[in-house]
Design goal:
The chain has a single domain, classed as STAS domain (Transcription Regulator spoIIAA). It starts with a strand and ends with a helix. Helix 1 runs parallel beside helix 2. By secondary structure, it is an alpha/beta fold. The protein contains four helices and five strands; from the N terminus they run ββαβαβαβα. The chain is globular.
Length: 118
């Protein structure tokens, strides 16, 4: 399975990292570097879109946790778009569904961002 990563920006200027394929020990470093780059550019809220992710391993979870920690230290947040029941299950089994804000679609994540900024 191949891996793709793309970054786009919502109307409120929140960056969205879109992932596709398998996020594992080989590809997770790209995700980590993308999050670091966005933080260095001043992002305080990052949305990671897992809609097209087929597989997530412990390395990927570690990268997401690290990103969340860095953002929260900067009074920010990392939120996930995760409509897949299979991928959600990984977060539930590990208890990470309790620490990440998770949404089913980009519109839900964007509406939550608007409420945060009010």
């Amino acid at each position: 399975m191949s891996f793709r990563i793309e970054t786009r920006t919502l109307q409120d200027n929140s960056p969205v990292i879109g992932l596709e394929g398998e996020v594992d020990v080989y590809t997770a470093p790209q995700l980590k570097q993308t999050m670091i780059d966005l933080l260095e550019q001043g992002a305080r809220r990052i949305i990671v879109d897992l809609t097209n992710v087929e597989y997530l391993d412990s390395t990927a979870l570690g990268v997401l946790i690290g990103g969340l920690k860095r953002l929260r230290e900067a009074d920010g947040n990392l939120v996930l778009i995760c409509p897949s029941a299979r991928i959600k299950r990984v977060f539930e089994i590990t208890g990470l569904d309790k620490i990440f804000e998770m949404y089913n679609c980009e519109d839900e994540a964007a509406r939550a961002a608007e409420k945060e900024s009010d």
